[in-house]
Amino acid sequence: MTGSPARRGIAVEQAVVYGLLTALGLGALVMALGFGFFLEDSRVGPGLVPGVVGGLILLIAGWELLATLRGHRTSHDSGLAEVVAAATPDTTADTTGHTTPGGASAESGAREGGSADAATMSPDDGPVDLPGDGGGPGLDDVDIFGRTPKERGRQLVAVFAALVVACLLVPLLGFLGSFFVLSLFISAVVERRRWVPSLIVSFLAVAAVYGVFVGFLGVPLPTGLIGIGG
Amino acid sequence: MLDNLVLGFSTALSLENLLWCFVGVLVGTVIGVLPGLGSTTGVAVLLPLTLSLEPVTGLIMLAGIYYGSQYGGTITSVLISTPGEASSVVTTLDGYQMARQGRAGAALAISAIGSFVAAIISLGLLVALAPPFAAFALDFGPPEMLAVMILGLATIISFAGDNRMLGLLMALVGLLIATVGVDPGSGTSRFTFGSIYLLGGIPFVEVMIGLFAVGEVLFQIRQGAAAPIKAKFRELMISREDLRRSRGPILRGSFLGFLFGILPGAGSTLASFMAYGIEKRVNKRGKEFGTGAIEGVAAPEAANNAAANANFVPTLTLGIPGGATTAVLLGAFMINGIQPGPLLFEEQPTLVWGLLASFFIGNVILLVLNLPLAPVFAQILRVPYGYMYPMILLTSVVGAYSISNGMYSVWVVLIFGIIGYFMKRLDLPMAPLVLGLVLGPLFEKALVQTSAIGDGNLLIVFTRPLALVVMAIAILQLAAPSIMARLLRRRATTRSRRSDSADSTPEGSTRG
């Protein structure tokens, strides 16, 4: 399978994630050796659980990393979910593999539940089902606002960067101040909603949070230099 | 027994508890309706709200969110074929078909009624079985607890995703995260890198909020907006015939759901799938399943509610959560300084029985709310996501802040938000990670105690008959599905091949 840019992107991300996990497992194992696996009388020591767990992570993530690098996509193996799928006559048609991919509309609806559903249970050598959700467009599609995956990727980065900036601004603007700005920024700039409704929604949201957390629960939210809400 | 129930109802019927129960089930329904926001997210995000309440009141509200979202998840499954909860995925199969035939009202009504009946049946069973089970569990030593925890992890790994290797990987990551901080056995500080924040361990609720709420929001942004939803108000048109047809499926679904629900690690999703599959086989209208049969809605809806309640059996009596949401609820218990386990029923009768009694009340409220108002709840979907998700983010960070009154919690949420995003994007299952994280400290404690009992020999687990049986079930669970699935698939293939050659009706090939 040649694959679309989005699928290749997923493979790269997979490789990076498995690589990081492999490193995490290795690091945990090495550090755990320093803690000591066993105490005297061969009792369980502080290093045993992290060491064994780290070692297993190293093995599994390393294996998955190699598989990804060699171009094998993670196959769906047969878990309990597949037994259920096989026991449900409706879906055996899918696993015997002579229905068209995608199936009926109800089945594509079922796919959205993610892990636990029958429709993603492809045969072992079948292609990976990309995570789909909420009746939304696929990874390669343009969504209802005409945004391409690239634009949505940029939005994602913008929202996360804004979250980090908002947290950094808390000492200056106060908690509610900076998150009011965040909410307004996301609605009006990132999502390109109109300014007036965005202002109203953001204000109401922050007011509700103030009412519940500061008024009712008495949480001392940081007020910042300007002293908003506290 | 009876005086326990009286005690429970007198607790649950106090004005304050009644109010928070109502808030819980209402918010739970709304959260269930919103696609992507499941009960786990709801309980994690709103947990900080309950910290100022009495423990019993807070837990009543959080549990209300849990079972309330089971009702809410159904609404979107039926109306727009988009399950709000993983456990209502199966409901889309027949529920959505019914809606397309103009019978959405009947489908929603039968799922509310089925859920209610199942809730009452399973609560009866829960009330009857939990105390003797707790008494039985008093004999459990560390080796038995160790075996039960392994069973829980094995169950969640074998059902949480399509790939058990990745499930195992995630469970291990959860266990590893749980080891950060001071080791309970020896007092050694592990993986703290000199940080005083890490000394206390990585805070559990913040991780949940990050993974489930922030991760989900980020994933939805990347995923793009779905088509706007037009849900119409429809009158409820459930006929006597519908009710008669659903009686059997609801009863079978309830008992089946309860059975699967009491397995540690098996959430309500498994129960709903099994109930649908089995109902399809035993029901004489089984062939109509998938085309809008009311039985195909009634059975899984009854099962997922029954399982949600049954999940409380291992959670309350063993302190081992049944699924991801009960894992977060277990965290809520611990934050309140309550350790669920065999002694809970003796030490905290007011809390346990108050909580159980509130389930009855909450389900009555849900039935009354859902029968006439299901289409009203569906209107929530009209709020544009562009306004909705900043609010979810705001609630998440404020909630996190209020747990520790510090920005450290907020940073943890953001870091785990990124991790959650990548997990969703790469289809890595979250439930095993959550269970690993929650069970980690308990697991290690049981391990240390077991090694102390066996004088350093961990193999004594295999000399205790009960522990041995539980371990065997756990291993069977991990190994059996491959074998069974292969057998079933082979049978299905040969059968469909045979029917293809005989006559190629579409029906023949769908019968396994």
From TrEMBL, chain A:
Transmembrane segments: 15-38, 44-66, 156-189, 195-219
Family matches, as InterPro entries: DUF1468 (IPR009936)
Pfam families: TctB
Region (Disordered) residue spans: 88-133
DUF1468 domain: residues covered: 150-222
Comp. bias (Low complexity): 88-131
Key words of the record: Membrane, Transmembrane, Transmembrane helix
Protein name per its UniProtKB record: Tripartite tricarboxylate transporter TctB family protein
Source organism of the structure: Blastococcus haudaquaticus
UniProtKB/TrEMBL annotation, chain B:
Keyword Transmembrane included in the entry's annotation: yes
InterPro entries (alphabetical): DUF112_TM (IPR002823)
Transmembrane segments: 18-37, 43-67, 106-128, 140-159, 166-182, 194-214, 255-278, 318-338, 350-371, 391-421, 433-454, 466-488
Listed Pfam families: TctA (PF01970)
The UniProt record lists the keyword Kinase: no
Organism superkingdom: Bacteria
UniProt entry keywords in alphabetical sequence: Membrane, Transmembrane, Transmembrane helix
Domain DUF112: 18-435
Protein name from the UniProt record: Putative tricarboxylic transport membrane protein
Organism for this UniProt entry: Blastococcus haudaquaticus
